[in-house]
Every structure is written in structure tokens, then in C-alpha cells.
Amino acid sequence: MTDSPKPDVSQPQNVDEIRLLDSFHRISRSMLVSMDRDVILDTMCREIVHAGILRSLMVALVDEKKREVRVVKGYVRTLSDQIRDRSDDFSELVYGLDDENITAEVARTGTMQVIDGWDPRLDSKFDRQDEPNPPKVAYFIPVSHGPKVYAVLATGSSPEERSATLRRIDAMAPLLDHFVIALNHIRQYEKAQSFSTQLARSHHDLGHEMEERKRAEQELKLFYHLNLDMMCIAGFDGYFRHLNPSWSKTLGFTDEELKARPFIEFVHPDDREKTVAAAARLADKSIDAIAFENRYACKDGSYRWLSWNATAYEPFEAIYATARDITVHRKAEQALKESEARYSDLFENATDLIQIVSPDGDYLYTNRAWKESLGYTDAEIEGLSMFDILHPDQQSHCHDVFSRVMTGEAVGRVETIFVTKDGRSIDVEGDINCKMDNGRPVSTRGIFRDITERKIVDQMKSEFISTVSHELRTPLTSIHGSLGLIVGGVAGELSEQTRSLIEIAHTNTDRLVRLINDILDMEKIESGRMVFNNGPVLLMPLVRQTIESNRGYADGFGVTLKLVASIADAEVFGDHDRLTQVLTNLISNAAKFSPEGETVEVAVTQRDNKYQVIVADHGPGISSDFQLKVFQKFAQEDATNTRQKGGTGLGLSISKAIVDRLDGDIWFENGTDGGTNFVVEFPVHERMTQDPAGRPVSKFQRGVLICEDDRDIAQLLRLLLEKEGYQVDVAYSVEQARRLLDGGSYAAMTLDLILPGEDGLAFIKEIRCRKDTQDLPIIVVSAKARDSQKDLQNGDAVWVIDWIDKPIDSSRLSDAVSMAYLPEQGRKIQILHIEDDQDLHSVVTTQLRAVADLTWAGNLLDARRRLYEGRYDLVLLDIGLPDGSGLDILTDIRERSSSTIPVIIFSGQDSPGSTVQDVAASLVKSKTSGEELVGTIVDVIRDSRVARKDG
User: Fold this and answer.
1) Which site among 167, 449, 718, 774 is 20 to 30 Å from 380 CA-CA?
2) How high is the pLDDT of residue 808?
3) Cα 919 from chain centroid?
């Protein structure tokens, strides 16, 4: 469409009419080809403005239903003859039909309004910035048919164009009438379209509803047929009408068989009355729905329990019901009732004391044994708290246990004391646990046993064991020590026949001592009274010492002991004495079962983060029949042969119990070529063994001088002493020893008596004559040490610590060198020996004669008197004394004003664990050799004096 020239109001009137008529025809054609309201409005507005009929035009449609007038179109002709669409500028102009507004007023009245002096610049919506002389007259024209107004047109002009504008508005009347007709047609068309759409939607919805209904019916039918529950419809006449397949599956009857007879005939005779009553209540509308249970007959003659839910619908005279087979459930319920009855009978008639207690401690249940033992009736138990029956001494302990149980912890082997109604005390032992619900305690359950009689028997047993320990170990220690001293030559030379008899007696006392120790150790293990003093333990010194200690035993079987693998500085955490006991048992067992001439090999190895001590023999191995019994008490594979070799069958059982208590492992493996390997395994104990500079730590500042011409022996002595932490110098001749003595200060010296060109005894005297070495402790290490000791009558005067024969006893050497490091050398140790057996005192005095003077006290009274009268370096204490326990003297020692005296317990009884912190060491008679006793005393004295010096 081409733009028409801008109309000139000064031209003849027929020009406007021709243009108007031309626009009218174009608008009419638009109306004929389109029924779209927006298209018609857009065409009309553009033609009116484009043809120059009006400069601007705004269209507002009237919606009577919404009671509003909404501006929908707006066009303006610019000065450059361009038509600008301003519909978006007016899209927010909406007026209520009843508002005080010119547009709304025209819509209500249907009367055109002309406003003079209107300035569109006051309203940005109508402001024409590109027109220098904006219109000053506004025209609001109703578009109506009869009384009904369809739209309001708004335009504007200058005052000079007022007449022409009014004339053009009048000329537009046919066009507006035609516009009204078009709007009506559009509205009718829109209504028809809406109706057609609604009709199509209804048709679609109806089809969808029919499909949904059909699907629902299919689903209902499928649900009805596949439901595991037994679904049915029965008439008021008492016959089934419809049944789903579950009926036939459950009862075995066909549908026809079930429908052919009244349903009551299938009900168990005992249940028919309640079934008829339930159906009658539904039929007479006395209840909407009902639930009950009964038994229905099966075709095989059995009955099934059914659980029913039923309702009735009177218009159809029908009962609708579902039944579920609960036969298994009813049987389980019956079994549960019977089980509960059995358990109730079990608890009620149990001999143990059973109680259930609330979280507050109140009793919820007690069985018959509980009531009979404590003497309370059911009425008296109501309101009774568990703490009301506890012994006062047990209140704190039981409160702690109860608190732990309330957190969900199960506590076993609880020992406490109950107080009966009549005030008697009974000892009980039991297990307690807690019933929890969602993490909250509901009740505690306790099962206790009356152990009063057992405690009495245990006390009697403990007293008996203490008596046996004292009365057997004390004389055995005297016998064993005396025989050992005689064999060692303290009583002078013995004839061969006498020595043979003494050695037989000494050997058999060894066997008797081991037997008694094994039996007593087993008793301590079983009663839980075995004491463990755990700490870091260096494995290699312990293993070497144990091997040396058992060489004599192995020699008796013609067996050699050999250390075949070692790990320097290997350290574990445990009890030194108990570990020694374990290795002694394994080594002696291996020696006993090894053929004569064979070797028992001991190895220390590492696997991952654990050390293993392996004791391997080359004996016959352990048969498969006996392997499960190896660690059992009194287990002996060949009792006859074992009795020939000796032994109680307790050693391995004791070893396993000790290893278990030390958190280790012990097992055995038969070798591929015969023999048996016993393995003991403990975790590696990490401890700093070097100073920050990386040098080995030495515990002594002054060294030891070794004077030995045999270089192999000298090297052995060096290794033995350096292993114990000593600094060592070696002289291979007397001349070299003199130079070393001139150049340094030594804490001790080992001396061979057979030296090239020199007499060892003469060299000792020379050393004693020198001022700087007159107090130097000397340990004689020589092949003729024993003979030379007899030749030198005044051994103590020249301060010879010990006379050690070759081959060298490493533990004896270590003890002798330790003695040399004692301060205040030149005087013997003063020991108060508190012991009721004077024979044993004599033996101990003889064993310690080289290092100590002993003062004897035979009872507590005598001990206290001598303790306050004399000055002692150490107290050697027996526990079992005629007038009380030797442990009572510890209080007197602590109360002394002078420095604390170290105490070593040397008794046939094991010292209680509570006394460990009060004593320096605890030794057991018959388990401690004279050398061990000397070594312990030396260590305790040295540690005590060093501690006082440091303090």
C-alpha cells in the first residue's frame, strides 16, 4: 500500500469524501477476509490515519462483563508522513467503567465528548514531540449500536481544524456501523470457536473417561483375581456369589464346590456360632463392618485359620468380605506362648538369682530363688530398689557398674555382696546387661549365683596354698641351697662317692622344686592371683641368660643348647621373670625330648612389627592325635616315657597362660625333617637407645679393665660387658695392664691367673700395694679360679669380688661387675634378714658371705627391735612369720626418720600386687638361686645409693 498525500482542509469537501470512501472500501475488504479482531482494528486505524481522515487515533474496547475500558490500539501520523504505532504506549491504560474518567463516561453514555483547550503534552502518552503545534481539541467518539457501546475512539486536532474534523467524524459513521457489525460477527465467531473447542474437549474427555473406566474395571478384575487375600461376595441367603482364585488355592475346593453349599458348612463346628452371629449383625445393619477369626475346612480334611474383614450392602443384599490365611501366624503365636511358658518356668525355677531392674533401680521382676535367698515377699519387693539390698561397702562399685550397663555395655563376672532381709551377707557373682529401645535404656537384667560357699572354700584354699608355699618352699630352699653350696665346694673337698650322692640329692631337689613351683603357679593362674611386673625387656640378655641357666639341665640329657640367630637391642614389653619362666619351660621341654647328642637351637627373629623367639628341637615331633592337647594341663604325649624323663605336664600350659596375659602369642610347628619348633611372639617395644649424637648410651662413666692373654676369651669378655653397657679396655699381659692402670681410673678389673711370665696372684697383691689401685675391685676369671681361691685364704682382704671358672658364666660375671660399681667399697653390705627358719638364714648367710653381713630376726617383734637398734643397707623379708605378716614391717620402715631402706621380699609366698610399689624386688623361695639372690641384692643396693646421691 502506498502512502496518500497529506489532506488539505482548504480543498473542496468532495476530496475528503472520496478519500474516506476509498479507505472504507479497503477496510470493508479486510473485514470480509479476516475474522481476527486485532487485524480488523489495525487495518481500520491505519487506513483512517494514513488517508488523512484523522491525524491520530486511539481505540479503547468496552468489556461489560469485566466492567472496564481497555485501550488496545493507537496510531499517529508524524510530520514526515510516517505512521507510528503507539499501541504499546497505551497498553497499560485501563479504566473502570464506573470511573470518573472521560473515556469511561463516553463508554457509559454513548455520547461523543469534545474537549477544548486540551494539551496532550500534559500526558506523556499523547505528547507528540515531533509536532510544533500539537492539537488543542480532543474528541472521544463512541462506537455503538443502539444503547450498547462497543468501543471509544479518541483523536485530536487544532482549533482551526475543528469543523473539518467534526465533518470527517460524521462521514465515518457508516464505517463505524460496519465496524460494529464486524465486531459482532467476530464475537459470534469467537463464541462458535469456543463452543466448538469445548465440544471437542468434551468429546475427548468423554473418550478418555470411557478408557479410564474400562482400564479401572480391568485393574479391579486383575486385582480381584491376583490378590493373595481371599475375596468374596456372599448373599444374605448364606451362599457365596463370587470368589477370587485365592479360595481354591488356599482350601483346595473349586468355585462350584464352594458355591454349591452354604458357607457356614465350611466353618469349623466350634466357630460356627460366632460366624453366624457376625453375619447376622451385618445383615440387620447393627454394625457397618466387622472383623473376626475362624477356621475353614480344606478339601483334605484339615482346617485353616482365617482372619476376616466384612461389610454389608443392603440394596444388593450382599456381604463383601476379605479373609487372610493366618494359620502360620496362629501356630507361631501358640509356639511363642508355649516358649514363654517354658522360659517363665525356667526363670522362675532356676537356682540362679534372676532380677530385672528399671533404669531408676527399682525391681520389676525377681524369680523364686531370688526371693528365697534374700527373704523378701512379692509385696515387700514392690518399691524396693536394688541399692537397698547392696552391702554398704559395695554401693560405690555397683553404682559405677550400673552406670556402665545403662549405656548399653554388658558387664560380666560382677562380684558383689547382697544383704538379706534378716541382715545376712551373701556373696554373689553374675552378668548384667541392658535392654535398649531406640538408644534409651528400658531395663537391666542380671543373673547372679550365690558364691558364698565358694568364697569360703577359696579362702580356705588360699590359706592352704599360702601354708604350702611357706612350709614347702622354705625347707626346700634351705636343702637346695645347702646342697648347692656343698657341691660348690664351700665345705671343702668331697670324696667321689660323697659328691655323687650329694649331686643326686641336689638334682632331685631341682625336680621337686620345679614340681612344687609348677603346681603353685598353675593355682595362681587359675585364681587370677599371678602378679606381673611389666616393663621394657631386652630380649637378647634374657635369652642368653636363660640358655646359660639351662645348660646344666640340658647336659643331663646329653643335649647342647645353641643360640643360632639374634637381634641386637631387640626389646619387648613384659615381665622379665615371667618371660624367663616361659623360655625356661620351652628350652627344658626341648632338651627333655631331644635325642642324646642333638642340639636345641634358639633363635630370635623379627616378623613385621613383632619379635619371635623360636626354640627348635630335633626330637620325634608331636603326633597329630596329641597336637590339640599340647597346652592343656597335665598333658603328656607318652606318660610312661615322660615319667622317665621327669616333668609334670604343666610347663607348656603355664607358658601359654603367661604369654596370653602378656598379650603375646605362642604356638608350635612340626619341622619338615622332624622335631618341633615352639614360637613365642611379642610386639616390638620402641624405645630410644641412643643419645642425640647417635652414640650408644653408657650407664657407667668409669670402665672395666680386662687382663686376659687369650684373645678369644678377651673378646668374649668385652662383648659380654659392653652388652651390659660397660666401657671396656683390654690388656693381653701384666705389663700392658700396668700401663693402663697408670694412665686411667677403672671401676673394676677382670684378671686371668695364668698369664705369660707372670703370676696372677702376685699381680693381685701388687695391685693392692699401689695407693691408686688398693681398693680396685677384682674379678678372677680363670681356669683354676676355684683352686686359687683356696690358696689365697684372705680373699676378702684383697677385695676379690668373685672367682669365676672358665667356661664363663655370663650372668655371674655381670653380677660380679655390678658389685664392683657399688659405692662405699671396702665394707660389706649390712642386711637385716627377717626369717623364721634359722636353717634357711644360715644358708643365705653362707651364700652372701662375700658381699654382705646378715643380722637375723626370727619374728616381727625381734625385727622391729633390730630395725631401730641398727643401721642397715637392705632388709631381706619373709612374709610368713609366727607373729604376723612380714609385710607389716613395711610401715615401720617407712616411718623411720632416716633415708628409706630398700626391701627385698624373699618368701615362699608371692607378695600381693599392692605391695610392689613398697619393695625393691620380690623373690620366691625355691625359684631363686643363690647367684640370683646375690645379683638382686647388688642391683638394689647400687640403685638405692645412686638414687640417694642424685637426690
Assistant:
1) 449
2) 58
3) 39
* Cell triple for 335: 509356639
pLDDT for the residue 50: 64
Between CA 535 and CA 578 the distance in angstroms is: 12
Paired with 411 in beta bridges are: 432
- The grid coordinates listed for 358 are 528399671
pLDDT, averaged in runs of 10, over the chain (951 residues): 42 57 68 67 73 76 85 76 74 82 88 79 48 72 85 84 83 76 73 78 78 73 74 90 90 93 93 88 77 93 92 87 91 85 81 90 90 90 87 88 88 90 91 89 90 82 68 72 73 78 76 71 67 82 86 86 88 86 88 89 90 89 72 59 54 83 86 83 69 41 81 81 82 88 82 80 83 80 58 44 59 62 59 87 79 86 86 84 85 66 78 57 64 68 56 49
3-state secondary structure of 531: coil
Please identify which residue in the block is written with the cell numbers 488523512: 52
Q: Are 376 and 421 in contact (CB under 8 A)?
A: yes
**Burial grade of 131 (CB within 10 A; 0-12, 13-18, 19 or more):** middle
d(CA 902, CA 909): 19
Whole-angstrom Cα distance, residue 528 to residue 615? 28
Q: Which residues contact 815 (CB under 8 A, 6 or more apart)?
A: 802, 931, 934, 935, 938
Q: Angle at CA 557, nearest 5°, toward 554 and 560?
A: 45
Identify the bridge partners of residue 562 per DSSP, sorted by sequence position. Answer: 601
Beta bridge partners of 63: 68
pLDDT of residue 804: 62
Q: Are 150 and 143 in contact (CB under 8 A)?
A: yes
| Cα-based distances in Å from 669 to 623, 632, 653 | 11, 17, 16
Alpha carbons 867 and 871: distance in angstroms, whole number: 7
Q: Which residues contact 207 (CB under 8 A, 6 or more apart)?
A: none
Q: Say if residues 851 and 829 touch (Cβ distance below 8 Å).
A: yes
> Could you tell me the end-to-end alpha-carbon distance of the chain, in angstroms, rounded to an integer?
123
CA atoms within 13 A on the CB side of 595: 8
CA distance 278 to 542: 90
Exposure on the CB side of residue 432, measured as CA atoms within 13 A: 26
What is the maximal distance between C-alpha atoms in the chain? 177
Strand order in the sheet with 240-243: 240-243, 230-235, 318-325, 303-313, 289-297
For residue 611, what pLDDT is reported?
92
Contact 848, 934 (CB under 8 A): yes
The string of DSSP letters for 569-637 reads T-EEEE-HHHHHHHHHHHHHHHHHTSPTT-EEEEEEEEETTEEEEEEE--S----TTTGGGTTSTT--T
CA distance 775 to 760: 17
Interhelix angle for 496-527 vs 452-487, to 10°? 160
Are 710 and 752 spatial neighbours (Cβ–Cβ below 8 Å)? yes
- Among 580, 547, 582, 579, CA closest to 566: 547
* pLDDT at res. 528: 64
Distance CA 24, CA 171 (A): 10
Look at the block and give the residue holding cell 530385672: 356
Can you tell me the distance from the alpha carbon of 435 to that of 114, in angstroms, rounded to the nearest whole number?
A: 95
Pick from 596, 600, 598: nearest CA to 615: 600
Question: How many angstroms separate the Cα of 721 from the Cα of each of 295, 578, 726?
Answer: 95, 24, 6
Q: Give residue 476's identity as a one-letter amino acid code.
A: L
> Regarding beta strands 800-805 and 778-782, do their DSSP bridges make them parallel or antiparallel, or are they unpaired?
parallel
What distance in Å separates the CA atoms of residue 503 and residue 496, rounded to the nearest whole number?
10
* Residue 380, helix vs strand vs coil: helix
For 578, residues 6+ apart whose C-beta sits below 8 A from its C-beta are 532, 658, 661, 662
Q: What integer pLDDT is reported at residue 826 of this predicted model?
A: 47
Residue that is written with C-alpha cell 522360659 in the block: 343
830 bridge partner residues: 853
